[in-house]
Amino acid sequence: MSSKILPPDEDNWLLDDSDDNAVRPSELRKPWKVLIVDDERDVHTATRIALRGISYKERPLELLSAYSGAEAFQMLRQHNDIALIMLDVVMESEDAGLRLVHRIREELNNGVVRIVLRTGQPGQAPEQEVILNYDINDYKTKTELTTQKLFTTTIASLRAYENMVSLEKNRQGLAKILESASDLYQLHSLREFASGVLRQISALLDIGTDGILCVRNENHSGRPELEILAVSGSYEYLAEKGDLSSEPKLESVIMQVFKEKRSIYQHPYDVLYIASRNRREFAVHFMPQWPLDTVECDLLDVFCQRISAAYDNLYLYHQLRSAQEATVVALADLAEFRDTDTGDHVLRVQKLTDAIAQEMLMRNDYPEQMSREFLDMVGMASILHDIGKVATPDHILLKPGKLDPEERAIMEQHASIGAHILAKSAQMVEGTSYLSLGSEIAGGHHEHFDGNGYPGKLLGQNIPLSARIVAVVDVFDALMNKRPYKEPWKLEDTMQYIKGRAGSQFDPLVVEALSLLVDEDRLPVKFGE
After folding, report:
1. Is 228 helix (H, G, I), strand (E, B) or coil?
2. What does the pLDDT look like over 51-107, one tens digit per residue?
3. The domain 339-519 belongs to what CATH superfamily?
4. Sign, Cα dihedral of 331, 335, 336, 342
5. Which residues contact 471 (CB under 8 A, 6 or more apart)?
6. Buried b / exposed e across 217-244, counting CB within 10 Å, b at 16+?
7. DSSP string, 70-83
């Protein structure tokens, strides 16, 4: 559609609409929707002719027609982006147009659409009264609306609508950005984060879910230079393919984004550029139906800044978690260094603890305790369960036979010692950490569900859940593997022993979760080898 305006012709108002297709929505630019509401077909015809060829900011008009207030209301419910309504007053009733105004503003809660009242009977709707009592934006008699004045009224109304929409988009967009950034701060994996970014862009622009998020691997290090982290919608087929070779045009634009280090809006190839402080660079492609306007581009720039900060937070979180995990592994290695018979015991305990916790989550056991934090940390924390053995004398720790009562009492001190050491360190870290969970496990994994364990003779759920899980895992692993004082047990005998102590030594729900893993052959590691 041309952006030129046809010369106004006062006589056009009386012409028939000989070309029903004179006004078409552009395939490239989203049209301004104008709704003509009038019960006289000649008014529709004349209005279409008068507005034929008009465009505003390179966007054409799309003219919609309704012949009653009720029909117009249904059309407004179907089209929430109508910019202007040219509304007659007298239609199926003497005040049908005025009633529609109230329904638009109150029932539809639409305060942005511009409403121009056009009446052929001004005596039935006095201008002053209507302007004061109804939320309309202009009042015209049909006799005064020449082609030129109709053009002026239309452009002025579209300009006002555009300003209203821009303000509302800014308000809603900024609110969504703040909300989305907050959500992204809660995500703890890069691919989960990438998928979250695609979802938030879709919500921010109110568009479909088609999108791709890529990261540029500058030094490669065995990885592709352009690595796809997340896909959605029509691009999901690329998840298995792993590269953009089947989308050469899109790949070219994304590489241009990385080269120029800026977002590029070349509809339909809109690509955002996001850089982080640790020199990682991301590109996000999405597919709006229409070219983005200035407000949307500005909002996306703000969004990119928030995403960059959220990614930096994710990176720092992973660095902190890695440092904590390295500390935990070092402490576990220290404990194992003297206890040479346990071998890979702690690593097996870690994997089985994670598996049981996930199984209990699926079974909805203790849902109030199965937090994301707990599930992320309990396995790693479990490898600290015997950290207190660093204080156990060698002649007791390494004794090949059974311990006498005095030696047993000294050996049992490792639970309290481990809990104390880790609890003291955990005080330096706010909230739940590997150290705080490790302290619970070290101090509680020899407690019995019936209260007859040690060191505190805790009963039932007074024993931390982490410790109740590791209590089962520790015994299962010890029985299934060779020790200096025993040969490995068969799986059937081990499970019979553990099930026989459900409710006395062990939490029955933990035993049930382990039994399911065994019965369904889903143990995470091989035991007894």
Report:
1. strand
2. 988 888 888 999 999 999 999 999 999 998 899 999 998 898 888 888 899 999 989
3. Hypothetical protein af1432 (1.10.3210.10)
4. negative
5. 444, 445, 446, 447, 463, 505, 506, 507, 510
6. eeeeeeeeebebbbbbeebeebeeeeeb
7. HHHHHHHHH-TTEE
User: What is the Cβ-side half-sphere exposure of residue 456, based on CA atoms within 13 angstroms?
Assistant: 18
Tens digits of residue pLDDT in 170-219 = 666 555 545 555 554 454 566 677 777 777 777 777 777 788 888 887 76
CATH 3.30.450.40 residue ranges for the chain: 183-314
What average pLDDT does the segment 354-370 reach? 95
pTM, rounded to two decimals = 0.52
Domain spanning 10-145: CATH 3.40.50.2300? yes
Q: Which residues are catalytic?
A: 389
**Banded pLDDT at 326 (limits 50, 70, 90):** confident
Q: Range(s) for CATH 3.40.50.2300 in the chain?
A: 10-145
Pick the CATH number of 183-314 from 1.10.260.40, 3.30.360.10, 3.30.450.40, 3.40.630.30: 3.30.450.40
